[in-house]
Structure formats: C-alpha cells, structure tokens
Amino acid sequence: MGTALDIKLKRANKVYRCGEVLSGVVVITSKDTVQHQGISLTMEGSVNLQLSAKSVGVFEAFYNSVKPIQIINSTIDMVKPGKLPSGKTEIPFEFPLHMKGNKVLYETYHGVFVNIQYTLRCDMRRSLLAKDLTKTCEFIVHSLSQKGKLMPSPVDFTITPETLQNVKERASLPKFLIRGHLSSTNCIITQPLTGELVVENAEAAVKSIELQLVRVETCGCAEGYARDATEVQNIQIADGDVCRGLPIPIYMVFPRLFTCPTLETTNFKVEFEVNIVVLLQDDHLITENFPLKLCRM
Fold first, then answer.
1. Does residue 62 carry a pLDDT above 90?
2. How far apart are CA 174 and CA 160, in angstroms?
3. In this structure, how many other beta carbons lie within 10 angstroms of the beta carbon of residue 192?
4. How far is it, in rounded angstroms, from Cα 195 to Cα 235?
C-alpha cells in the first residue's frame, strides 16, 4: 500500500449554506514516512452547461458545451513542505463558505444540461519521482431560505376532450370527464406536492394514471437559447380501470439533488413542471401540464 489521502467532513449529510464553515480533517495514511512539497485544500463551485444535440446538431453539441461558470474558487495551504510520519496523520481544517462581492451561491443541482456542483480538493505535491496525490469530495449547498411567507396557489382542473390541445381527431376520442385539484403550484421543496384526482366518467377503460415530474432547463449562449424538458421521475398513482367518482390522492416528494428552487439567471434557467398522465385502454394518452415554482423556506 502506498500513501492514501482522504477528506472527512464533520457533517454527515455534507449540507452547508452560505456563511457557514466547512470543518473536518484530511487523513493521510502511509506505511513509511512521506516526503512532500506542501499540502493544500481547494474549494470549487461551478455551473456546467451542456447544449443538447437537438438544439445545435449532434456534432456541434460535443464541442459546443458552454464554458463552465465559476461560482467559487479559493485555496488554503494546510501544511508547508516537509515530512509526515508513518501511520495515520489527521490534519484538521476550517474553510468558510463565503461569496466575494454580490455573487450568489446557487443550490447544488444535478440535471441533464445544467449541473451545479461544489467540491473540496486536497492536493499533496511531491518530488519529481513520486506522483502528486489528489482527493476530491463533493459537498452540497442549500440556498438560504426565502424571507416572508409562501402564498399557496391551489389549482382546480377539469379534463374533457374539449379542453385538450394538440388533438388531431377530436371526434374519435372517447368521452371522459376527469376533475381534480393540486393543493399549490408554489411548492416548498422539502414538502410533498399534494392534491387529488377523480375520474367522474370515461367511456373507455382506464389503464393507468401517472404523475410525471419534468425539469425544464434553458441554456443561453451567443448562438441563442436551448430549452429542453426531461423527466425527473414518474409515479403511478392508479393502475387499471379505476372506480368512477373515487378520489385518488396525488402525492409526490421532490427528490434531492435532482430538484432545486426555481432558478433564473442571465445564462441559464432551471424550472419544473408536473404532468398528470392518463392512459386509456385504446392507448389514448391524455396529459395535463402544470408549471411549478419551487422554493426553500
């Protein structure tokens, strides 16, 4: 076994907010004494934007990934050049999470075309003959809570053949009436989206009813804007031909990391929508779309 490097944060969940201090230890394990040219710790945060092949063409998409936007980048020297004893050495550190000027610390978000990620990187520089050692550890940033109270915005909906858009042959559609409501389209990200749905009547048998959470990512560059909607998760809330007039609960928890408070900046946007999808027996697919506004309270 050679020399191993590890970063251990004190917080088990690795979640931090702007203004807090990341504290932990760098652990160096080695059988022999280690000669080194200095050990440093770097905190990095960046937004990686990727244009989809749909918007710019397949080949352009590979080299057209927009330059990453740097949010934070600062380094501290932990240990000056010297020797470390054999065995296990722990070097404690404290790293404040501060923004320079009026920059904003965006929340950690793992999307398809937009990725916001924060890492701690420890580098041990060594002499020419020994390879430099590097260890990276991701930590999660939550945006600060919004001030004030969130006003709920309940939505009642009725779906019939007449209310549908993008229908080619309306006359061939079976008759149906679906009612329901969502408790609010202004959602607190740590609380579930709730509501209920009732199939009042339907000529065709119902096969399935699903809730689909969709992320809408917009990336901007000199060539223009690329807006892409992709599925985050899909939850089946009813299976088979449901009883008419029976309230079916709508309940969806927002997954962490894959969702973040609705974000709008000059270079990119991250928004969320929910689709209620009803599949009828003869493969008629009925979709009702609701834009959501997510925030952290």
1. no
2. 10
3. 12
4. 14
Read off the tokens for 251: 């309940």
Whether 9 contacts 97, CB under 8 Å: no
Radius of gyration of the chain (CA): 25
**pLDDT tens figures, 244-293:** 999 999 999 999 999 999 999 988 999 999 999 999 988 889 999 999 99
- List the structure tokens of 69: 């936007």
DSSP letters spanning 3-33 = -EEEEEESSTT-EE-TT-EEEEEEEEEESS-
Rounded Cα distance, 109 and 19, in Å: 19
Pairing of strands 133-141, 15-16: parallel
CA distances from 224 to 2, 51, 127, 168, 218 (A): 50, 11, 48, 31, 10
Q: Among candidates 104, 92, 140, which has minimal Cα distance to 120?
A: 140
Distance between CA atoms of residues 273 and 288, nearest Å: 10
- 8 A C-beta contact, residue 210 and residue 234: yes
Who's near 297: CB < 8 A, 6+ residues apart?
A: 145, 146, 150, 188, 190
Q: What is the number of residues in the chain?
A: 297
Say which amino acid occupies 255: P
User: 127, 35 in Cβ contact below 8 A?
Assistant: yes
pTM of the model: 0.88
Q: Which helix (H) or strand (E) holds 237?
A: strand 224-239
- Fill in the amino acid letter for 43: M
φ/ψ of 60, rounded to 5, equals -60, -30
